[in-house]
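In the laboratory, one determines a bound structure by crystallizing the protein with its ligand and collecting diffraction data. In a computational setting the workflow is compressed into a single prediction: the sequence and the ligand go in, and a structural description comes out. We illustrate the idea with pyridoxal-5'-phosphate.
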Amino acid sequence: MALVNENYLKLPGNYLFAEIARRVSQFKNNNPDADIIRLGIGDVTRPLPAAVIEAMKKGVEEMSREETFRGYGPEQGYSFLIEKIIENDFRPRGVELAGDEVFVSDGAKSDTANFQEILGSGNVVAVTDPVYPVYVDSNVMAGRTGSTDGGRFEGIVYLPCTEENGMKPSLPDKRVDMLYLCFPNNPTGMTLSKEELKKWVDYARENRTVILYDAAYEAYIREDGVPHSIYEVEGAKEVAVEFRSFSKTAGFTGTRCAYTVVPRDVKVYDSTGKAHSLNPLWLRRQTTKFNGVSYPVQAAAAGVFTEEGKRQVRELVDYYMENAGIIREGLTAAGYRLYGGVNAPYIWMKTPGSMGSWEFFDKLMKEAHVIGTPGAGFGASGEGYFRLTAFGSRENTLRAVERIKSRM
Ligand code: PLP
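The predicted complex, in structure-token form:
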């Protein structure tokens, strides 16, 4: 008799987006003429930049000729892309990395979910609340938690982000072994300054904690003083792994390319207290379980770093950030209390009065025909909040804001 991995049974179904889809579909059935605007999704809508398409076409061309055809590639990524990543994303910020510290992958989702595999199953995990659900669910699957009361899992240390702390988590009041941080944050859109981030790095160094730092939205940072990489903070190379993605930077959500930085100096310990570098363990994991990203897609990702590519990516991110500004200005003028949207494509709003997240979702859908994401779906501390994204078209963003102002 094959037994099930019972950890999977602890997970509720993918309740949030399924429930949103159910409510929207019911509303549409009853109101077939309603012109619904979706500002709920965390997916980009603009096409790939021309420089990326050119580079991808060239990569495909090369695959068609015997002299330039490529079969299995290195699982950790081609050096032509890794060198460009280091040269463009890190060196200008004073961060030196070796080529074997960067691992190209098919997504920050897969990497943030898989990375816990090479860490001890008895480790105590901390996450911010609200949180990108993948960090929690992957640790539930791995058996690091007890069951859930619907909002929180037993055994996980939750670090609330609320209006009281300005959506910035406080350090854990107990020792944790693995700490997930995401800045710019999904869903709150908030960032930490270099000084604020240093407190976390210091905590990790004191407690031998590994920080799993998700910087998938790094390209959206606009303000000075906000670190683009955790390695801008002194000592971070001893304690932090950083996840990056081309998804939101260059429109790769359907194309798939990301990378993870695992500095050789990040150490974990065995039961005798002996230190082991995480870097060769991750290499071992990837070479066994991951086939690498296809050559044309890595060629396309390298297109992001050409002069044209950099300009086009900048324009793409600017487009979404102008949307974020439109949402921020419009809703602030309408009296809503907002977070984020300055260095991130997410706007996190307090629901009016004591309205619950889902209650506000229904009201916004019924009265303004606008769809957002209820904050409660990202964790217990997200109750009473609501997420809007800047990833819509300009026209829809303007229309949605007008409707919220006039109908809500
Ligand atoms: N990390 C965060 C915080 C995200 O919000 C997302 C996507 O929404 C991802 C990672 C996934 O990135 P990728 O498309 O590279 O898998």
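The chain has two domains: 13-47+308-407, 53-305. Keep in mind that any predicted model is a hypothesis to be tested, not a measurement.
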